[in-house]
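queue> pop job 88
queue> type: inverse folding (structure -> sequence)
queue> payload:
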């Protein structure tokens, strides 16, 4: 299992590349900013997604296969950033679920050249295309390892900042990662995002 994961990570690193390589990023407008805390407006975005029913590695492999050509047109789809995961974590105030079920969802955003109608259809029935509706998100950026512990710490910090600014939570926290697995931890860009009600 670990060998398979290592091979998958190596393949991703070849496509995801080094720190300096630029990848298309989901466009947004910064409404306000205070240090690592931002409020952003996003337009509709197209994503390919799958539930993490078999775990995070299984979900990542399914999505990576899709962009590598496991779709009806055998088309290779360019890697974009970020890769996102919806997360349910224990917080002091209950939050609403942003996905259709209690399962975690992993998403790869598709390049802007695709629409829902023109994007290649997945071959795997557990992988689907989805339009992520436009909205406003509170975001906190952090570097370091993209671990669950780091995510939960920054999600709690973001929730506190939102409370101070009288912002209503509209989704579970979303974990966004921007770098390949071999990027040094101190150079990584990670984010926690929460949709505003």
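queue> result:
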């Amino acid at each position: 299992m670990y060998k398979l994961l290592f091979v998958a990570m190596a393949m991703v690193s070849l496509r995801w590349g080094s720190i300096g390589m630029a990848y298309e990023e989901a466009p947004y407008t910064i409404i306000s900013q205070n240090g690592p805390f931002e409020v952003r407006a996003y337009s509709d975005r197209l994503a390919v997604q799958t539930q993490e029913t078999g775990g995070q590695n299984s979900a990542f492999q399914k999505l990576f296969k899709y962009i590598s050509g496991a779709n009806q047109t055998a088309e290779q789809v360019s890697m974009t950033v970020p890769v996102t995961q919806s997360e349910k974590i224990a917080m002091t105030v209950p939050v609403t679920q942003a996905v259709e079920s209690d399962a975690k969802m992993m998403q790869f955003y598709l390049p802007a050249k695709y629409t829902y109608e023109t994007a290649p259809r997945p071959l795997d029935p557990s992988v689907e295309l989805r339009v992520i509706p436009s909205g406003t998100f509170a975001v906190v950026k952090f570097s370091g390892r993209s671990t669950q512990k780091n995510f939960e710490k920054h999600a709690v910090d973001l929730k506190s900042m939102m409370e101070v600014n009288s912002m209503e939570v509209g989704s579970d926290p979303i974990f966004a990662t921007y770098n390949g697995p071999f990027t040094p931890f101190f150079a990584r860009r990670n984010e926690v995002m929460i949709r505003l009600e």
